[in-house]
Amino acid sequence: MGHDQEEEETPPATPTTTASKDQEEETWNHQKQTLILELSEKLITGDLQAKIEAARDIRKVVRKSSVKTRSKFAAAGVIQPLVFMLLSPNVDAREASLLALLNLAVRNERNKVNIVTAGAVPPLVELLKLQNSGLRELATAAILTLSAAAPNKPTIAASGAAPLLVQILGSGSVQGKVDAVTALHNLSTCKENSIPILDAKAVSPLIKLLKECKKYSKFAEKATALLEILSKSEEGRVAITNSDGGILTLVETVEDGSHVSMQHAVGALLSLCQSCREKYRELILKEGAIPGLLRLTVEGTSIAQERALKYHGLGFTRSLPF
């Protein structure tokens, strides 16, 4: 605010006006704290309709407020009753609590962790199974937001959410698909995972989404990262080969993607070749891979350049002028 006033060339603040502003800010902070306590009390002790109204009001207040306000709501004890509301048979209660929890979690790492600790993941997974597309996609957004916190990843990865997120890749709205890919990408970076979170069923929708998106986008980077992971299993490699335009889409990403998506795409193609050169070499050459591989040897990341050069030892020597 001070900078805005200086740009408008207002007179410098006098001690009186400064004191007045301090008083106004103190009054506002007191009013907000009172509101936080009132809404928390209403949420904790009210009947179902009161809880729904309180959850909606919490969302409204938090959307326009700072990280500190989110923390104050959490300190007032709203997280656990909001998580309990996720289990309600009442659709309005579920939606109101979901939206409140989502807004409490945004840009607040501690709240993300506390929401998962309070038991939010199992009811969120149940919401992913619903036919109600609105609630299902809100749950997807919540899983995405919560999975951004590293301590939450093992819990979410072990919850069975991943196969349900894969279903959304094929049937959700555009935003739902973006959220599902991002959530799956977050979970794929969990080092504590002993069991892969993805299976070959994810390949076809990922290829379709990659085919349709801009190859240099952040979305493409996440989709190709997941496809590279899937290419490390035989089932994944078969699914990539059998998907309509699977290899071609990866080749196009090597040519037109960002440095990150190029690196993942060439990694996926390399996994195919290293698993069975005779089976995949001609398929990849047939889709016109050479120009993209040549470009990577000069312009790619150090990892991408190293991967491109490995094609030399995989029977691409006649085609690459190394």
Question: Distance between termini?
Answer: 60 Å
- The percentage of residues in β strands lies in under 5%
Number of strands: 0
Mean pLDDT: 87
Overall morphology: elongated
**Low confidence ranges:** 1-14
Number of helices: 20
Radius of gyration, in Å, reads: 25 Å
- Major sheet size, sense and barrel closure: none
Provide the structure class. Answer: mainly alpha
- Estimated helix fraction: over 70%
- Topology as a string of helices (H) and strands (E): HHHHHHHHHHHHHHHHHHHH
Structural notes for this entry:
The chain has 322 residues and is mainly α. The protein is built from 20 helices and no strands. Helix 9 (133-147) packs parallel to helix 12, helix 12 crosses helix 14 (218-230) and helix 13 crosses helix 16.
Write the layout of secondary structure elements.
Elements: H1 2-7, H2 15-45, H3 48-63, H4 67-75, H5 79-85, H6 91-105, H7 109-117, H8 121-128, H9 133-147, H10 153-157, H11 161-171, H12 174-188, H13 203-212, H14 218-230, H15 234-242, H16 246-256, H17 259-275, H18 277-286, H19 290-299, H20 302-310
